[in-house]
Every structure is written in C-alpha cells, then in structure tokens.
Design goal:
heterodimer; A: 402 residues; mainly alpha; 21 helices; 0% strand; B: 478 residues; alpha/beta; 10-stranded mixed β-sheet; two-stranded antiparallel ribbon
C-alpha cells in the first residue's frame, strides 16, 4: 500500500467514523425525545393518582386507580412511585405502601434479593426497605456481606427503614470484615431502631474492631441511651482507640448525665489528644453544668486552638456563670484595652481573644433572636498576626449590647 | 549538498516523530474516554440507589466549609453567594475571602447581607502572608456566611486563610464566579461518607456557564454560549475535564482537582502545610503533594472525581483573558512538574509516579511545543522536499482528523450520559466547535502555553488569575 493509499484510507475511515458518530448522536437524541414523550403520555393518568396519594389524598379511587393500572403504564410511572415512596411520610407513605403491595411489588422483590445481577439485588432491597417488609430482614442481613458495595449499602439502609432491632448486631458486625458497609449508613440505620437497639449497641462496645465500638458509642449518644451512660464513661476512660474515646466524650455530652462530669473534666486535661480535649470541652458545654465554668475558663488560654475555641463556646452555654468567666477573660473593651500588637501571643491575650469572639457571637445571636440591632461600641482594631504563637490575635468585639 | 541532505533527513525524522506523538496523544484521550464511559455506565445504573435523601437527613453527615477566594469579583459575587447559601446540604458554612479587592466586591456583599464586623481568633494552621484585616458575618440574617477581608496575597494565600478560618472537617474550594448545582455539595461530599477511612479528596466537574440561563443563582436552562471562543471551550472542558479526569479517577491516577470545585479533608490540608505559595497551579500542586505524602507514609487512600452534578463557571470570552488563563495554567503545570521532578518515573509513588506524572510531562507539558513544531516543521519539510505531499496529507489526518474524531466521540458520550444540551441548534454548534478547536484554537493556545512554560522556567513573578467577568444576569442568558 502506498502512502497516498494510506492517506485515502485514513480519510475514508475518518469520514465514515464522523458520519456514524453523527448518526449515533442524532438518532439517539431523537429516540430519547420520542421515548420521553411517549413515557410521559403513558404515565399521565397514573401520575395524577400517584401524586394525589403522595399529597395525602388517600381516597380509595386513587388507590384503586394505581392498583389497576395497566402493566405498561405502571412501568412508566414506577420510577416516580419508587422515588416518592422514599420521600413521603405518614399516611401518604402508608397509602403508597398499600398500592405497591397490592400490585405485588413486595412479593416480587423478595426472591430478587438473590438475583444474579447486583443492580437487581440492590433495587429489590430498596423496594423492600421502603415497604417496611419485616419478612425481608433475613435476606437483607445476608446482603450486608454482598460482594457489591452498593448492594451492601442499600441493604443496610433498607434494614434501617424496616427498623427491626433484631438486625442491629448484624449491622454493627457489617462494619468489620473484608466487605464493610459505610459506617454512616450503619449508624443511620441503627439510629432508626431506637431504644430497642441499646442492648446490642452496649454489647458492641466490647467488639474487637475500633470502628464497631466507635459507631456504637456514637449511636448510643444520638439515641439518648442514658441507661448505658456508665458503659460509655468506661469507653471514654479506658478504650484503647483515641477515636472511640473522642466519640464517647461527644456521646456523654449528648446524654447529659451528671456522672459524666468528672470523666469529661479529666478528658480535657493537657496531655490527652487535642481532638479528644476539644470534643470533651464541647461536651461540657452540652452538659451545661455551672460547676465546670472555672475549668473551661482555664482552657481559654490553652495553646491548642480547637480546645480554647470549644471552651469559649461551651462557656456561653452555661448561662450567667459562663458569661462572667468570658467577660473576665475578655478584659476591658477595645477603647481602654491594651494594644494588641504588644500582647498578642501571651496566654492572657489568647484567652481574651477567644472570650471576645464568643461574647460577640452571643450578642449577635441575641440580636437575631430579638431582631434588634445593637449599638456599635467602637470599630474594632485590625487583627494582629502573632508571629510566635499558633493564633492570630483577633480584634475585640464590635457588637454592642453586652 | 551533504548538509542539505542531512537537514532533509532530520526534518523527515522530526515530522515522523511529531506524527507518532499526535497518534499517541489522541489514543491516550481515547483510552481515558473509554474508562470514563465505564464509569458513567456504572454511575447511571446506580444513581437511583445513591441515597442522597438519607445523607441529607443524617446527623452524621460531615459538615463542610465552602471556601470562596475572591479578587475583584463585584460582577457576580452576590449571585454566587446566594446560590451557595441555597445548596442542599445538612450543615455547611460559606467563607468568602476577599483578597484585597480594589473593586466593590466587599461593598456589594456588605450591602446584600447586612454584614457586621466580628472578632475572630484565627489559627495559623496553614501559612499565610497577607494580613487579615477583618471578619464579617450577617447581622440579622441566619445564613452561615463569613466574609474575611485581607491584604492581597494571591489566591493561594486567600485559600490558606480560608482553611484557617474553616470550622468544619471538610473544606470545599469553589471559585467566586462558580454556580453550583443544588445537589453539588451532597454529591461531591458523598465519597467521604461512603469510604470515610480512605477518601481524602474529591473533585467535581466544572462546566461552562456562558449562554446558560441563570435564575436566582441557579442554572435553569443549559445552552451553548453565543461566541465561538467559549463554544470551543465547552468541547475542550467536556473532553479534558469531564471525560479525561473521570478516566484518570477510574485509573486511580487523578492528579488535578480543580480549584473551582474540589473538596478536601481539612486535617490533611493542615498536615500538608496548606497550599503552596510558590506555585501558581496551587490546586493541582496540592493534589500531587497529597499523593506523594500519603504514598510516602504508606497510607491507604483514595482521591476521586465526581462527574455529576457540577459547578458552572464563566469561561473567558475574549482572546486577552483566555490567553492569560492558558499562560497561567501551563505555567502551573510546568512549576508542578519541576517541583516534583523526582517523583516522575519513580516507582515509589506507584501509578502516580509511573503513569500520571510521566503522562503529564509528555502529553501536557510538551504538547504545545510539539503542536507549534508541527505547524512550522511540516510546511518546512514540504518546502525542503524531505516529506512528500502524501505524507503531509497523512499527517493532517492523523494530527487533526483523529483529534476531531475524539471530540465527536466525547460529544457522543455526553449525549448518551448527561445530555445537558437538549436543543438541536446547540448540537450543531457543538459539532462546529469540535471542528474549530483543531483549526486555529489549538495552535493559538499552544503559543500561550509555551509562554506560560517559559515564564515558569525563567521564574517571573506570579499573579492572581484575575478574570474579567460579566456576571450572571438573573432570568436571561449570561
């Protein structure tokens, strides 16, 4: 083959390929437009009944209309129906569930949990979760160890929607192993099981995997498992994993038991990991115990920004006692205050900076609550870079009203 | 005569080398597009199972600080901030860093959101040079907005200041002229929820907003831009950013997360010392440094690219601004590859060292040089008689015909995956732009890119990538 022939061949290939691609684009677009239009036409009667049901109009006519839809029409309307099922709550949800069940969707989905295709398994899990089918729990638990990540995730989510506490242990176990489920998905699912999940959650605090213990302790805090507080305190004090201890501190703040006071005060002491100290300082604010004000006040000058910052905002939550500590640390206003260029970086100045920031935030929140604009005391001086320390000294508050 | 013969041989060899180069570079695009198609098919089939509603309702979804560096962005800043405030995400804050703007950027924000100055202690976790002048929040409105004014220090300095100010564990960097799809933050942050132990960064796709209709900070109608310059850029973004980066992500070798829409773990940014002040392509440099750091410390990690939804940005519509942008981009690539030259071809950095960095060296950094060499040497070869007419024709087909074909394939993939441009007229404009990219546009950008590489090599002063914006007009095409 000569060079000229190669060139000619290349040209024909190029023109042919461009023509084919052009046709693929044009035909594909035309077909898509036509298909969408046909689907919209077909789905129109079903959509009306579906949207009426979703809007809370559970008249038998709407339900019957959906149940008796021609299979072709139902196929057109089904994606919208499935999407709505996951979004609506209360009576609308119950009515939609009834429609799905009467069309046999749940019964058809059950065997699909063992379908060969991952997408089919995941879709079946999604439908069964939305329908709240308790008889699907064993099949869904099995899918928690599926080789496909999306299938595992959808199965965990479905178990959460069904809300059977019997699945709690399996859900927590699914965090460990070769094919884990994302921890947030597991935590969200277990949270939906409520107080009945507490025994399994408490037992999971002895699990060998850090992630299982960390998730369990976090969920215990979120569901307000006060009776398990002593066990959470033990996790804060004794667990080997810094992550578990940190989440235990946050959980104790949410639980709000007085017995958490001493272990949290211990957790904010220097020498602990900064992330744990900051979380514990925030948790002390959640507890709202006035007795912690001096300890939190001492943390305002902590060299760790996250710790001092958390302490300042926690003090705000202690009411007058906390505010007094902040005002004392903030010192005099900017007009009479020391020139920050000379004092930035000192412990007292750092504490003042955090205190002023928190107090300004309080005033602002107060204004937002009442809708009134406070008088500005004085324009704040420019923040000053502290070359030696970890923070930039901030300007004193500009917002009046305190 | 002998010298002339030698010259002819040299020209012939060079032309063959250039031809081979074009063949390889376009084939590499084809491979990346193929990988992107696999990813899109996977994405399309599983999108209904993504569980965004659960993520949105979950109290455990990690809060995000959206960092928006702004320098002379008065035209569109208010619209952008409104769009960001309306993002669908459980807990987030928007931090605008006004990097010493000389226009009314701050005044417009202050007037719109009734800003009030507040004291704020700012940690020095990431290094900064420009002094922070003041921090502002809305007086009465509950929006989680923070505006910080600082002395001009460049985009890197603005972003590092934002990292210091950020209160949340994830930070999302967004350009001030960007308009995000409502679901964009949920989507780009989802990899962190799905794989929290490994995902350290995620990039979102950036598309061109010129020509689209924007209402209340939302893209409500996607159209091709009116001018040919932005139209060609639509095709370029589609091929290089959407498909190219999706392909690299699939390969596990993503090197660039656009500063216009990328999300990172804040603790890792601090561990890395923030963004590099000495590199103009700070976003890409950050990702390369991240790869190197994590590989050196033998950590299991993932850096991923999310193809949808998207961030929409205004593309340059004049030659002057486009030239400035391309010079800056290529200067960035040159600086990064120079800085990280010891990682190129280094097996210690896995596929980053052995595949991604060498690819960027050969097919990104050198591409404009080869492009211009082709424009000069092929006609020279014809004149000198070292190549014949048939070779020149073959060259033309391989170099430009193949590239055109790649553009058409990219358009086809877009048509079957996201099909954002639904009008037939837009399709016609896109096909025409796919042709035009190869005639003049590529050669022009090659000149700018060479200029950018030269600036990096001689070390001239780097400046903020100031763009001339027209802003997004509500209810009408921008």
């Amino acid at each position: 083959m000569t060079v000229a022939q190669i060139a000619t061949f290349a040209l024909s290939v190029l023109i042919s390929a461009a023509f084919v691609l052009g046709m693929v684009i044009v035909v594909g677009r035309a077909l898509r437009h036509a298909r969408n239009a046909a689907r919209a036409r077909l789905a129109a009667p079903g959509r009306r009944a579906l949207l009426a049901l979703a809007a809370g109009d559970d008249a038998p006519d709407n339900l019957d209309a959906l149940v008796q839809l021609d299979p072709a029409v139902w196929r057109a309307v089904e994606p919208t129906a499935v999407a709505l099922l996951g979004k609506v709550r209360g009576e609308a949800h119950a009515a939609l569930v009834l429609a799905f069940e009467q069309r046999g969707m749940g019964d058809r989905a059950l065997p699909e949990l063992r379908a060969r295709g991952a997408i089919r398994r995941a879709r079946a899990a999604e439908v069964l979760g939305n329908l709240g089918r308790a008889d699907a729990v064993p099949g869904l638990v099995y899918l928690l160890h599926d080789t496909d990540r999306d299938v595992r995730t959808v199965a965990a989510r479905a178990l959460g929607r069904i809300g059977d506490p019997a699945a709690t242990r399996a859900l927590l176990e699914s965090l460990a192993g070769r094919h884990p489920v994302p921890p947030q998905t597991v935590a969200d699912a277990v949270m939906r099981m409520g107080a009945d999940a507490q025994p399994a959650l408490a037992a999971a605090l002895d699990h060998s995997a850090d992630l299982v213990r960390a998730t369990a302790v976090e969920v215990l805090g979120l569901i307000g498992a006060i009776t398990v507080a002593p066990r959470v305190i033990t996790a804060l004090s004794d667990d080997q994993s810094p992550e578990v201890r940190q989440r235990a501190a946050a959980a104790l703040g949410r639980l709000g038991t007085r017995s958490a006071l001493a272990p949290l005060l211990e957790a904010v002491e220097p020498g602990r990991p900064p992330a744990l100290r900051a979380t514990a300082a925030r948790a002390l604010g959640d507890l709202g115990a006035v007795a912690t004000a001096p300890a939190l006040g001492a943390l305002l000058s902590d060299p760790e920004h996250t710790v001092a910052h958390a302490a300042a905002y926690s003090l705000l939550r202690l009411g007058n006692a906390g505010r007094q500590v902040l005002e004392h640390a903030a010192g005099p206003g900017p007009a009479a205050g020391p020139d920050p260029t000379h004092t930035a970086g000192s412990a007292g100045d750092r504490a003042a900076g955090y205190a002023r920031e928190a107090l300004a935030r309080f005033d602002l929140d107060d204004q937002r609550r009442t809708g009134e604009v406070g008088a500005t005391v004085a324009p704040p001086p420019s923040p000053v870079t502290d070359g030696s320390g970890p923070v930039i000294g901030s300007a004193p508050t500009a917002v009046g009203g305190r | 005569m002998a010298a002339l013969g030698w010259l002819r041989d040299a020209l012939h060899l060079t032309d063959v080398a250039i031809l081979t180069y074009f063949l390889l570079i376009n084939t590499s695009y084809l491979v990346l597009i193929g990988l992107a198609v696999i990813e899109f098919v996977h994405h399309a089939r599983r999108a209904p199972l993504s569980g965004f509603d659960e993520t949105y309702r979950s109290p455990l979804t990690q809060p995000v600080s959206v960092l928006v560096p702004a320098y002379n962005e008065e035209a569109g800043i208010v619209e952008s901030v409104h769009a960001m405030m309306a993002l669908r995400y459980p807990v987030f804050e928007v931090v605008i860093i006004d990097d010493g703007s000389t226009d009314a950027t701050f005044d417009r924000l202050a007037a719109e959101f009734d800003l009030v100055e507040v004291p704020r202690v700012i940690p020095r976790d990431a290094p900064t040079t420009g002094e922070v002048l003041s921090v502002h929040v809305p007086r009465l409105r509950p929006e989680p907005l923070v505006v910080v004014r600082k002395v001009n220090g460049g985009k890197t300095d603005a972003l590092n200041t934002g990292i210091n100010l950020a209160r949340h564990p994830l930070v999302c960097m967004v350009d001030a002229d960007s308009i995000l799809d409502p679901q964009a933050l949920l989507s780009v942050a989802k990899p962190f929820a799905d794989d929290p132990l490994r995902v350290v960064a995620a990039g979102g796709v950036v598309r061109i907003a010129n020509g689209c209709t924007v209402v209340a900070g939302r893209i409500v109608d996607t159209r091709m831009p009116r001018g040919w310059l932005p139209r060609v850029q639509v095709i370029e973004y589609l091929r290089a950013f959407l498909l190219g980066r999706t392909g690299w992500s699939r390969l596990g070798g993503l090197l660039i997360i656009s500063g216009a829409f990328g999300i990172f773990r804040r603790d890792l940014l601090i561990e890395l010392g923030g963004l590099d002040h000495h590199t103009i392509g700070e976003d890409a440099e950050l990702v390369v440094r991240m790869h190197r750091h994590l590989r050196r410390s033998r950590r299991d990690y993932r850096i991923v690219f999310v193809a949808e939804p998207v961030s929409w940005s205004e593309a340059p519509s004049s030659m002057r601004v486009l030239g400035r942008q391309r010079r800056r981009w290529h200067r960035g690539i040159t600086e990064i590859l120079t800085k990280h030259r010891t990682a190129i071809g280094n097996p210690r950095y896995g596929r980053i060292g052995l595949v991604s960095l060498p690819y960027y060296l050969v097919f990104e950094l050198l591409a404009p040089f080869v492009e211009l060499a082709a424009v000069l040497l092929v006609p020279l070869g014809l004149l000198a008689g070292s190549i014949d007419y048939a070779f020149a024709v073959r060259f033309l087909f391989v170099a430009y015909g193949y590239a055109l074909l790649i553009n058409l394939i990219a358009l086809t993939v877009e048509e079957y995956s996201f099909h954002r441009y639904s009008r037939w007229s837009d399709l016609a404009a896109a096909v025409a732009a796919a042709v035009l990219e190869n005639v003049g546009y590529r050669q022009l950008t090659a000149c700018w890119r060479i200029h950018g590489a030269w600036s990096a090599l001689v070390g001239s002063r780097s400046v903020w990538g100031e763009m001339t914006r027209t802003g997004f007009k509500g209810g009408s095409p921008s």
